[in-house]
């Protein structure tokens, strides 16, 4: 509801005729190319997961991993939990795939998340630095910048704490009554994650390859935004647009609305207007980028789940 309210407020303060005209006059070939690049991104991410699972001595095909990722993408799109809902789904499905305990799937998901977020924060933090060095006032945009910098508190810090914490009977996990039936499973997952990170300390070359691949995947994100801008005829440099895209995505990853709905569009529209882009054009660009990277993926993921359900009518998917 909050996300839809934000988008509604943005639309009310925009020229709807201008937005309709921009959509009508957009170059569809650029949009088609951006959509194709989004599909390629989904395939690359699936291949990354498959590659990472092999690092841990497990095997899963990129095709099967693509199905699991799409299931996770569907659920993370409807849960305001900084993608935690989608990751939980992946843990369950990977457990079934590996036919092992949750500990193994938690280790795979934790490793992929760590590699992906490290690559993302490389771009995100660089974007904040570029933003400030370009003469923009920190105090004028303090809420946006603070929001993008707070993201590590929700994702990185807990992972670091879990990877270093000593798990014993005195652990806080044993004091949580609502985890009573899951304590041993959670502890096994944490210990597996710790063992995974410990073992990777001696495989720095493989980690470097995973990190560079993560950078490639995240680099494609602003590239799709640049194609969307081209389709609308908006003249803006790739670097400024990439900086705005990463900052807006950082804010959207905070667990405020499902999939960051509204917060991404609002942040991006505000920052684009500071570069001289008209409010209407800035909003339609943000909405198109959102469609390519969120709604398009959501639709494909929903169709994938529906097709899988039809193929398994006698044994419905248990997520």
Explain the overall architecture.
There is one protein chain. The protein is globular and about 55 Å long. The chain has helices spanning 2-12, 16-25, 28-55, 62-76, 84-98, 102-133, 142-164, 183-200, 204-232, 238-252, 263-273, 279-311. It has one domain (2-7, 18-307). It has 319 residues and is mainly α. It is built from twelve helices and no strands. The mean pLDDT is 76. Helices cover 75% and strands 0% of the residues.
Termini separation comes to: 25 Å
Class by alpha and beta content: mainly alpha
Mean pLDDT, all residues = 76
Percent range of helical residues: over 70%
In DSSP terms, counting alpha (H) and pi (I) runs of 4 or more, how many helices? Answer: 12
Helix-strand pattern = HHHHHHHHHHHH
- Which percent range describes the beta-strand content? under 5%
Radius of gyration: 21 Å
**Global shape:** globular
How many E strands? 0
Which segments are poorly predicted (pLDDT under 50) over 5 or more consecutive residues? none
Describe the sheet with the most strands.
Answer: none
How many domains in all?
A: 1
